Amino acid sequence: MISSGHATIRRGGVRDAESVAGLHAHSWRTAYRGIVPEEALGDGMAAQRRELWALRLDADYGEPENTPELLIAELDGGTAGFVYLVPQSDGRVLIDNLHVRPGLTGGGIGRALVAAARAHVAERHPGAELFLEVLRDNTRAIAFYEREGAVRVRAQEGVFPGGFLLPEYVYAWPGGSVS
Q1: Is 142 helix (H, G, I), strand (E, B) or coil?
Q2: What pLDDT score does 34 carry?
Q3: How many CB atoms lie within 10 A of CB 39?
Q4: Contact criterion met (CB below 8 Å) for 23 and 109
Q5: Torsion angles phi and psi, residue 44, rounded to 5
């Protein structure tokens, strides 16, 4: 467990699936409104997130170096945010999700999660590049990642749930360094 400011960062697991799914859906509806098609944020999204997280957190990935890591930020006993790290076959590590509960953004929880993610990668995957994909129009998230030292690597199109193709950027932190 890591304590950072007023949030505590801990490893997550199966018991966190419901709270992470709820936060994930709520965060998408808040952050992506006006960026992604409304159909992608509709009524079925919460159920899809619950199914996704139940599967992800109960799966057997084999070797520890292949196993994704869920880090939870807790505040007052509740899930305030999370980051999900997925090792890639090319040796890099993907931040597949990074979300802070709407209403708590700007308070240092995202910064603590990025720091915990970088420390985890430095310890478990020494020298690996940490990267993420962010929607091009998610300017608030982009500004946050740049403040945290991430560098834009390239532009691409990403497939969003529902089969929507949306423009996005790839951002990365150089491997082997934790700041």
Answers
A1: helix
A2: 74
A3: 11
A4: no
A5: -75, -10
Q: How far apart are CA 170 and CA 177, in angstroms?
A: 19
Q: Are 88 and 125 in contact (CB under 8 A)?
A: no
Nearest Cα neighbor of 22 from 95, 72, 76 is: 72
SS3 assignment for 64-75: HHHCCEEEEEEE
What percent of the chain stands above pLDDT 90?
Answer: 63
Sign of CA dihedral 20, 25, 30, 36: positive
- Cα(174)–Cα(128) distance, integer angstroms: 8
C-alpha distances in Å from residue 30, one per residue of 27, 34, 103, 121, 140: 5, 9, 10, 29, 12
From CA 167, how far away is CA 92, in angstroms rounded?
A: 22
Q: Which amino acid is at 13?
A: G
Report d(CA 173, CA 19) in Å as an integer.
Answer: 28
Per-residue pLDDT, 88: 95
Give the tokens for residue 105: 């953004």
Q: State the pTM of this model.
A: 0.89
Tell me which residues of the chain have a pLDDT lower than 70. Answer: 1-5, 37-45, 175-179
For residues 113 and 27, the answer to whether their CB atoms sit within 8 Å is no
Rounded Cα distance between 132 and 87, Å, is: 12
C-alpha to C-alpha distances, 114 to 35, 42, 52, 67, 148, nearest whole angstrom? 23, 29, 22, 18, 8
